[in-house]
């Protein structure tokens, strides 16, 4: 429903509506006073509504996180725009919070509506996957760099995506990173490029591997 309508509702009715929204949901005025909160929010902060109504965050807790919350609120009020970002609580929980300005009939901001979801577990899983990815990449890089022979890979536009240490040294580079983004024509003599292009095109079009001798 349009957020301007919220200003016309009784707080009890508003709380009833908010209880049907998943996540931690609350409404504050521009001074930071709580006007409504759903049960999930109250359970999260372990507080009864009668002890939260009309209070500001510093009335409940006192830490640096409260300042971050208030700065977030004021940014929404000042910009008059909806903002979504991650918030990290003092205990390490991570929330994805979406704060929306509430307007009166004259389009003045009178408060904000916030909906937050706990994404701590998801972020932990992402961190584990990223760490596993890094370990796999390190292992793969080690294997490729120590493979015998010259190993390299190109995209379909014949741009180098990487190579092993042996080929890099053969080309006069300290490591394969110097080849990344270079085209065959930037690295090989023209006559060699033509030969390689013919072979590469055959592999791409046939979808099959090809073994052949190539002169350096």
Structural description of this entry:
By secondary structure, the chain is of the alpha+beta class. It is built from 9 helices and 7 strands, in the order αββααααβββαββααα. The protein has helices spanning 11-18, 39-45, 49-52, 57-60, 64-79, 120-145, 165-170, 184-187, 190-206, and strands at 24-29, 34-37, 83-88, 94-103, 109-118, 152-154, 160-163. The strands form 2 sheets. Strands 2-1-5-4-3 form a 5-stranded antiparallel beta sheet, sandwiched between helices. It has a two-stranded antiparallel ribbon with strand order 6-7. Mean pLDDT is 86; it is low at 1-8.
Please identify the structural class as seen in this structure: alpha+beta
**Secondary structure: number of strands:** 7
Order of helices and strands: HEEHHHHEEEHEEHHH
Mean pLDDT: 86
Separate helix tally: 9
Widest beta sheet: strand line-up: 2-1-5-4-3
State the share of residues found in helices, binned by percent: 40-55%
Report the uncertain regions. Answer: 1-8
Q: What would you call the shape?
A: elongated
Largest sheet descriptor: 5 strands, antiparallel
Which radius of gyration do the C-alpha atoms yield? 30 Å
């Amino acid at each position: 429903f349009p957020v301007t309508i919220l200003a016309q509702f009784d707080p009890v009715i508003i709380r009833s509506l908010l209880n049907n929204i998943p996540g931690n949901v609350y409404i504050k005025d521009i001074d930071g006073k709580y006007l409504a909160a759903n049960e999930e929010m109250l359970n999260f902060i372990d507080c009864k509504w009668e002890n939260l109504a009309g209070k500001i965050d510093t009335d409940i807790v006192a830490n640096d996180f409260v300042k971050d919350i208030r700065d977030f609120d004021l940014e929404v009020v000042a910009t008059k725009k909806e903002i979504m970002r991650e918030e990290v609580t003092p205990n390490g929980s991570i929330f994805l919070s979406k704060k929306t300005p509430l307007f009166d009939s004259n389009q003045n901001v009178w408060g904000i509506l916030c909906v937050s979801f706990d994404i701590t577990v998801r972020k932990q899983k992402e961190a584990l996957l990223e760490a596993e990815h890094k370990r796999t990449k390190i292992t793969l890089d080690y294997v490729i760099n120590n493979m015998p022979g010259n190993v390299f890979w190109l995209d379909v536009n014949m741009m180098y995506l990487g190579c092993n240490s042996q080929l890099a040294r053969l080309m006069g580079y300290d490591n394969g990173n110097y080849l990344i983004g270079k085209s065959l024509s930037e690295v090989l003599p023209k006559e060699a490029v033509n030969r390689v292009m013919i072979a590469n095109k055959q592999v791409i079009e046939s979808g099959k591997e090809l073994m052949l001798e190539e002169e350096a």
